[in-house]
Design a protein that fits this description.
- By secondary structure, this protein is an alpha+beta fold.
- Helices cover 43% and strands 20% of the residues.
- It has 9 helices and 9 strands.
- It has helices at residues 11-20, 31-38, 42-55, 70-76, 80-100, 142-149, 153-161, 175-188, 233-249; strands at residues 28-29, 58-60, 66-68, 103-110, 113-120, 135-137, 191-194, 201-209, 215-224.
- The strands form 2 sheets. A 6-stranded antiparallel sheet has the order 6-5-4-9-8-7, sandwiched between helices. A 3-stranded antiparallel sheet has the order 1-3-2.
- β7 and β8 form a beta hairpin.
- α2 (31-38) packs across α3 (42-55).
């Protein structure tokens, strides 16, 4: 069959496996590294990477490493779930940044992950491990706890039944604790994530709702865990999230 290799894997599947090599956030790889990460023969990888480079999906740097090309960036910007939401949210995020001078982040849910679609990094704020396009498990971040708390019950149960990845000694890995935490998020409208991804960051998140009243995104600020004002950020984040929600609903 045309487009299918001798082992039954389609050309398109192999091409996508090359792009998936970048899924964990690393920016650049050698041809050998892409081959290993994509589980493809080096000759096959060389051909596919060459095709992607000619199309503009990958770019080869002076160091010989391949990076995501502008063609993919241009296509990603057309994603309707990200573009319209980001356009509405950015002015509120900028206001929140001016009020806090902390990291401000916006995420949506994809399966059991939170995906960051916009962020403003504070110059003197605590370093964070997020970037636009990054995926993190829902149970381990402020935005993730918001997205999980307002997700369908079946998805919540799926997450609660699965092993909960640990990133620091403070990560919630007990289903009973997570269930109680989600109930508190729904009660208060604010999620507090204390040093779950790194040992020095504290995240405060709130839901952004769409036209049907459902949670379509989560907004957060990330501050140092020892910031004496960290408890005061909740109302500011919630107010910004409500502003985005109203604008999305046209009210």
């Amino acid at each position: 069959m045309a487009g299918v290799s001798s082992n039954g894997v389609s050309v398109s599947a192999r091409l996508l496996s090359v792009l998936d090599a970048y899924a964990d956030g690393h920016a650049a790889f050698t041809l050998s590294e892409i081959s290993r990460r994509a589980s493809l023969p080096l000759t096959t990888t060389h051909r596919l990477v060459g095709e992607l480079e000619r199309w503009g999906g990958l770019e080869r740097g002076e160091d010989g490493r391949y990076r995501i090309g502008l063609r993919l960036v241009e296509l990603a910007a057309l994603c309707p779930r990200g573009t319209g939401l980001r356009d509405v949210a950015l002015p509120f995020m900028q206001d929140l940044y001016e009020a806090t001078h902390q990291n401000v982040q916006l995420a949506v849910r994809e399966g059991t992950d939170g995906v960051y679609i916009e962020r403003i990094a504070g110059r003197q704020a605590v370093p964070v491990r997020t970037r636009i396009g990054a995926h993190w498990p829902l149970h381990a971040t402020g935005v993730g706890l918001v997205l999980l708390a307002f997700a369908p019950a079946a998805l919540q149960e799926e997450v609660l039944a699965a092993p909960l990845a640990r990133f620091t000694p403070h990560t919630i890995t007990d289903p009973v604790t997570l269930r109680r935490t989600l109930a508190e998020v729904r009660r208060t409208g604010v999620a507090l994530s204390d040093r779950q991804i790194t040992d020095d960051a504290y995240s405060v998140g709130a839901p952004v709702t769409g036209t049907d009243g459902g949670c379509v995104a989560a907004l957060s600020v990330v501050v140092s865990y020892d910031d004496p004002r960290r408890a005061s950020w909740g109302p500011a984040v919630r107010a910004a999230a409500i502003g985005i929600s109203r604008r999305l609903r046209g009210t």
